[in-house]
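Morning!

As promised:
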Amino acid sequence: MTTLAFDTRENVQTLLDALALGSIYGLMAIGIGLVFGVLRLVNFAYGQLIMAGAYALALTNDHSPVISMAVCLATVLVLSLAMELLAFRPLRSASPTTMLVATFAISYLLQNIALVKFGAIGKFAVVLPGLSGFVTVGDLSIRWITLVSIGVGGCAFAALALLLGKTTIGLQMRASAIDPATARLLGIDANRVITVAVLVAGVLAAIVAMILPIAESPLVAPDYGLRETIIVLVGVVVGGIDRLLTATLGGFTMGFAVGALSGFLPASGSWPFTSSVYLDSAVYMLVILVLLVRPEGLFAPARESAVERV
Amino acid sequence: VTRVAHCAALGGPVVLLVLVGVLGSMGFVDPGREIEFRTALVSVAIVVALYVFVGNSGVVSFGHVSFVAVGAFAAGVMTIPVDLKPTITPGLFSLLARHSLGNIPSLVLAAAVGGVFALLVGIPLMRLSGLAAGIATFAVLGVTHNILGNWEKIGPGALTLTTVPETTDLLQATTGAVAVVVVAFLYQRSRFGRKLRASREDPAAARAAGIDIHRQRLWAFALSGALSGFAGGLFVHLNGTLHVSDVYLELTFLTLAMLVVGGVGSLWGAVVGALAVSALDSFLLDAEGGDVGFVNDLLGKPLWGGSRLVGVAAFMSLVLVLLPAGLTRGREFRLPRIGRLRRAAEGSVT
């Protein structure tokens, strides 16, 4: 009986951690999905916004958390706007491949700037250290940040639903995502809609930059947020990139799957797929399977299959 | 007239590559810098291998470095001396541990492993297109990287493979790059290549004309995988060491960017993109080391450290933003200044 109770507790803890990771990835998925919606651009450089925010936190460790977080937000927003004005705007009519590879190049550029400026070793970002502590609920001891991640994820999603559903700019964003040409004919200012989307995505990136150092690793190196971005990008496409809801669910599912699998797989094993070092393989194999069965997205409503223009 | 244009389309890249090889061997550049020429030529081989699929099919593959990786590890693991294997790769399957191959057989093996792997992966994956195909090929890279980095029965796992014979000299690098270019050219001129290019331009019309897009993409993917594996073999014999992170994200990004910078739609673009980025990379590296006279004179000191990393990335970002069609705008090489012939040929070559 004791072992069973112990197992249940472990499982609940694993599931909560997975839920928290899913929320963080879900936030990133919203940021990527929003920009894709209005620009048709997969922003690989999204992770470098998070990196920049985390560096801003690491460099302002000595100041009060409020100032530190404000600097982080400002840095990410300025960088987002710069990306939109200097790169996304000139690329607006380019092919999807060129746009994606261009954001690759920007991501690589920003990583190298960080590498040259701050070195490869990395800096520690300490924000609100109290959130690393534990709270005890019955048998469970849960980290505060786990609860905060889930809470922030839920609130952000609700706020976004309100923004898209109840405001004029939200309506314009949805219209631009469905049919940019017609939306522009009807008097929607494309630049304004895109700028708002990029800024909202930037705010989400800043929030993730504040949560990630507490939830995952506080050591901020030039490739900070890169692995997460890759997993979220994969998740967004697996979920269905054409709709914000399915994209978000895709990101959340990837985070949940990574969190749950890493909790349940044993720590070592000599053959592939038998231990948690093969976690990435397991996740990517699932991704391939899902894409083969539902190329339009796991959560996307089924549609008539036609020859896609590639 | 079309024959002239086609000869130029193959001749241009080949002559350029031979020129790079000859320039590297002339010795008027520092002998220690010959490695930069060899690296550039191996980059050309990888980028052209990538082009065979991406350029002809119009589908982006983020997974091609998987084939480079398996080729490089196959060629590397099978050419280190048998008596050193217990120290360098202790966990190897006994069949792999007890045998070693020569240089040329290892390159053939690398091509075979890359080709077979691509064929197997391609059978299910080539049904996809667009973003789904891109992400699925990337997932293949993720799985390959993860398994190569952990499974010690087939390679060094997380350790670095060392003592691989450094057989990719200037002659082999040039011959290898030219060979990949010739195969790529013959393929794109063949029935298969033309069918695939037709499906790139208009999938619906190509299908209506009886082209099996899935099958054509699969052939291109397998051929491209074999060439990538071969280029991986050249790559491992270039440095003599190999770590699984050498053939992962950075190489994927660099080779894709080289291809797009040159112009994704043409063989000439693949060659030019790879050489242009490599040349800038070498130039900035030398300038950082204080080996470029005029930079020293201009600044009064060597270029500041780190400018290579930032400079190459900035160059690629700039080209992509300002010239989205690439340096060659996706056109094949043509002979200049024979206006009349060229105009006549223009209708038939696209």
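Chain B has 16 helices and no strands.

Hope this helps with the figure draft.
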